[in-house]
Amino acid sequence: MTVPQRSFDDTDESRSIRLSRRTAIASGLTALTGCLTDGSSRGIADVVVYNPRGESREVSITVTDGATSEIETTVTVPASGSIDLMNRVVMEQTVTATVSDDTREASTEWDVQGTLYVGVMAGGIEFRRESEVDTPRIVRPDGETDIVVSSHTEAEMTVRVDRDDQTAFEQSQSFPKDTRTAFHNRLDATGSASITAAVADGPQVTEKISLEDVVTVLATLDGELFLDRNFAGTRTE
Q1: Domain hosting residue 161, numbered range
Q2: pLDDT digits (tens, 9 = 90+) for 60-104
Q3: DSSP code of residue 86
Q4: Does residue 118 register a pLDDT over 70?
């Protein structure tokens, strides 16, 4: 799924497209796809919820065509983070998307032609269509690295980053099925670090990498567990 380049945020900054290079920790892995097709050759779109605020937010999302609900879920979006609900809504139809947190609720009619981006902002809940957005990634200052966990099954997972004999980042939680959970701006893109991803009572992978020009460290559980690195000037398809 190809998307253009700019996202809404509180600073209205712009940034360049990122393409990708993959380091696989398991053999026989297949590349993740951003779009799938069904028997009628219609794509399936994502819903991305972004939270720029300093505390996590519990957010409820419902997408319905009036008769049936294609999404009806509640997720916890990390502080300064986002959650991508992957491959959820059949394209080429019009649906109603309703998003709420503990204090607000907002709805929009969505003519599904691509990803819907939802910002749970301090001033309210905002919607952007893919055609209105220049990048799916959240704008953030150059020189900082995101940590992203992509899970195709519901799993308890821990991601830890160690550098200079100290833990620079650690997150242990249950990650929902078919989601990408992003923790934005968590590391300086300098020096080297040891990245560990581990599934509770399951596999673990560790890799020592240079963070120079790395914009995303991606841990993916898709049958097997592996790590990606997205470099400046590149992005993952």
Answers
A1: 144-231
A2: 999 999 888 999 999 999 999 999 999 999 999 999 999 999 999
A3: E
A4: yes
Domain boundary among 69, 97, 132: 132
Residue 44: alpha-carbon gap to chain centroid: 16
| Residue pointed to by tokens 């109603």 | 96
The answer to whether 231 and 20 are in contact (CB under 8 A) is: yes
- Does residue 91 sit in the same domain as residue 150? no
Q: Is the pLDDT of residue 3 over 50?
A: no
Is it the case that residue 215 has pLDDT exceeding 60?
A: yes
Residue for token digits 């929902």? 176
Residues 121 and 153 in one domain: no
Strands 69-77 and 57-64: antiparallel
